[in-house]
Amino acid sequence: MRAGIDIGGTFTDLVLVDDRSGGLLIEKVLSTPDDLANGVIVGLTRLVGRGGAAGKDLETCVHATTVMTNALIERKGARAGLLTSRGFRDILEFGTEQRYDIYDLSLRFPDPLVPRDLRREITERTLADGLVLGAPEREEIARVVADLATAGVESLAVSLLHAYRNPAHEQSVGAILKTIAPGVPYSLSSEVAPVVGEFERTSTTVANAYLQPLARSYLSKMATRITELGYPGDLLIMVSSGGLAAVDTAEKNPVRMLESGPAAGALAAAFHAARLKLDRVLGFDMGGTTAKLSVIEDGQPRLTAEIEVARVHRFKRGSGLPVRIPVLDLMEIGTGGGSLAAANDLGLLQVGPESAGAHPGPACYGRGGTRPTVTDADVVLGYIDPGHFLGGEMPLDLSAAETAIRTHAAAPLGLSVEAAALGIYELVCETMANATRVYLAETGGDPRRAPLLAFGGAGPVHARRVAEKLGIQEVIVPIAPGVTSAIGLLVAPLAFDMAHSHMGLLDELDWGTVNARLAEMEARGRDLLARAGVQGEHISVIRTADMRYAGQEFEITVEIPPGELSAARQTEVAARFEATYRAKYHWTNPHASIEALHWGVRVLAPAPAISLVPSLPAPSAPAPKGFRAVRFVGDELVPRCPVYARHTLSPDVELRGPAIVEERESTIVAGPRDRLTVDMLGNVHILVG
């Protein structure tokens, strides 16, 4: 038996898979922000008990969390200090010296994670070619560290000039820190992000140091609590690149957990795409706090080399903190079920970005919330049955939802409660559709070319309207959509990703150095897998290079061929770049030189096999379990909309919309002109319009 645990801002999702039978058990409990382990233990205890087992029967336990991301956004990390080369104390303020909006006169950037008074310069210098001009001195380092300790620093970041080319000085500083400050965690940029780009490298290293003490206490506590249930193995952690890492590795590199939960959702989308034999799918994951989009191409989610976190403006690139790590390419495209809605100062309806979270939650939860959310609107419109939420375990208060919408949206705007609720629903769907259009246009995609795979507790409620706005003709809702990301945890391989910079034009590169870097990274990855019990022939290696045309500012990631590279194979590498570039931008420049910047290696174990065997009923005519009034876009009221229990729908059934299909963790909404079918794997297909 294998368990997956995904902690979100509102709910904690848990799944239990029995590899012998292919059976699946699911559980969803409210997250417990004061102590997240409490919600996990409650849900896991229930889940294992329902499976007729105990903690000792678990072979694997995999965990994803938003704790690290939230700590950055909410500034709840450690009091960190920075050691840097003399003259570079203010690199966190200088950034890239670019404005993300040249017309905004009140432009703001996020405050640095390390304030200026906690940054110290040390005298040393490595040149751009790696030659040493001056080495650091132990006495100076001891003095500045003692000074930072007096200031209450709990963690240290070390980012020295050109350390990606020659890490000797950072390694020397690290060795000194071990002796003079043995209890203080530290992060070296040459280990965390050995890449070109002084600002990005320092920003990533500082973020890692900022999160280290939190990661150490959080992960050790979570592992201990799960072990106390009888689990005999090591807790595995989902990292942003879609691989798994052991707790000790995650504690040292918490910055790699920033997209932990969303990455699991993207892997689950790829898993379902493979089951459906679809090369291209758009994964639409809408939970209680946010919605995310992932693009599955050739059966795999995209991988990128950098993300931004804690943006001042959610959809403006450059307004956040850059983090240079391997990460699945995900787009946060809007709001979640708990996003707050109200009339703003301009007399317009606004939804998000603030969320009600798990506490107090939407007004309809009856936990003290008085402001309306997207979930409250869904209840008022009839999409969600107040008496069936979480299978009836958590009844919702329709009257409280109506009161909240009336007070904060309908009355200020001079609308009926129903019209305001419909406005909230429509605004949320338009926000998500518009963000998807922009994202896919920027990455060379057309939304109409792929079906929308909808999951998350709120995804199936909103997916068909989002698809309609995008011109997508089909929405697919997999089995157990409310806990799909937790299922993604159980299809992830144990994997390690490494990157290193070595810049140069392809026709001028020192290929010997490139091969040495690649071999070094592969050896390191194999060693990490060996420590986790994975050996030789079961390991696969993927090598990449971040490349661009000379003179361009941004690069693309290209998979490079195996084996030793050389000047003789330069044309092969260039051909791969141009094929990737053409697929992305539908254009190439045969007259421009090609430049490589960063080289990456991904070393991974085989992905765990998982065969979900849905329990499907025998073929029968579909019979609604009841009817209720449902209001659709266009103020189209259906007084007696049929409501079906998903577990009663047999394969090859066909329903004409409008229809509501309910299950314990989520609800599927099909519009008046939609058609709904069920396949042999239990997936529900909505043919939009």
Mean pLDDT: 90
Count of discrete alpha- or pi-helical segments spanning 4 or more residues: 16
**Cα gyration radius (Å):** 26 Å
Question: What fold name goes in the CATH topology slot of the largest domain?
Answer: Dna Topoisomerase Vi A Subunit, Chain: A, domain 2
N- to C-terminal distance = 41 Å
Structural class: alpha+beta
The largest sheet, given as strand count, sense and whether it forms a barrel, is: 9 strands, mixed
Which stretches of 5+ consecutive residues score pLDDT under 50?
Answer: none
The total domain count is 5
Count of β-strands: 35
Overall geometric form: globular
Q: Approximately how much helix is present in the residues? A: 25-40%
- At the first level of CATH, the class of the largest domain is Alpha Beta
- DSSP strand (E) fraction? 25-35%
Give the CATH architecture of the largest domain. Answer: 3-Layer(aba) Sandwich
Account of the protein in words:
- The chain is 31% helix and 26% strand.
- The protein is built from 16 helices and 35 strands.
- With 689 residues, it is an alpha+beta fold.
- The relative contact order is 0.10.
Could you give a quick summary of the protein structure above?
The protein is α+β, with helices and mostly antiparallel strands and 689 residues long.
What descriptors fit this protein?
689 residues; alpha+beta; Nucleotidyltransferase, domain 5; Dna Topoisomerase Vi A Subunit, Chain: A, domain 2; 5 domains; nine-stranded mixed sheet; 16 helices; globular
